């Protein structure tokens, strides 16, 4: 298994982040039809980094002389209020599923949330994304709600840090 290197988003990652978003959601038939869905991904610095949040990307192939690093995972932390942040945009390239990359991103986001002073994390996923549900539940997120949004059933989760 290749090692995953997590780092903060940089502007040069923009195109690949949008591509990863599309690929990951299409692989589980969870891509919205709404054109505004990626507005935050087109303004990561303003939406996440400059707003008491974080946005991480994960690369494989780092340090290998024969291959260039490939961005295969991502996740964001968006401020809700002074004590609460939302975990969002958790994505792993479909060709890299089941390698622990999503878990690595989630754990690093939780650590960053603690460093930023957040006490509670919230997130949403669709009912179709069973692997995501399992990941969140494994790490102590409790389901706190359910709603419909277009053709999707959306599940809300919450976790108190510390």
How do the helices and strands line up, and which of them pair or pack?
Layout: E1 5-8, H1 14-27, H2 44-49, E2 54-60, E3 70-81, E4 84-92, H3 101-115, E5 120-126, H4 130-138, E6 142-149, E7 152-160
Parallel strand pairs: 4-5
Antiparallel strand pairs: 1-2, 2-3, 3-4, 5-7, 6-7
Describe it:
With 162 residues, the protein is of the alpha+beta class. It has a single domain, classed as Aminopeptidase (3-Layer(aba) Sandwich). Helix content is 27%, strand content 35%. A seven-stranded mixed beta sheet has the order 1-2-3-4-5-7-6, sandwiched between helices. Strand 4, helix 3 and strand 5 form a beta-alpha-beta unit. The protein is globular.
Name the strands of the widest sheet in spatial order: 1-2-3-4-5-7-6
How many domains? The number is 1
Report the end-to-end length measured between terminal Cα atoms: 31 Å
Number of helices: 4
Contiguous low-pLDDT stretches (5 residues minimum) are none
CATH architecture level-2 label? 3-Layer(aba) Sandwich
The CATH topology annotation reads as Aminopeptidase
**Mean pLDDT, as a whole number?**
91
Q: How large is the radius of gyration? A: 15 Å
Kindly state the percentage of residues in helix. 25-40%
User: Could you give me the name of the CATH homologous superfamily?
Assistant: Gcn5-related N-acetyltransferase (GNAT)
Order of helices and strands: EHHEEEHEHEE
Structural class: alpha+beta
The biggest beta sheet, please? 7 strands, mixed
Q: CATH top level?
A: Alpha Beta
Overall outline:
globular
Q: How many E-type strands?
A: 7
Report the β-strand fraction as a percent range: 25-35%
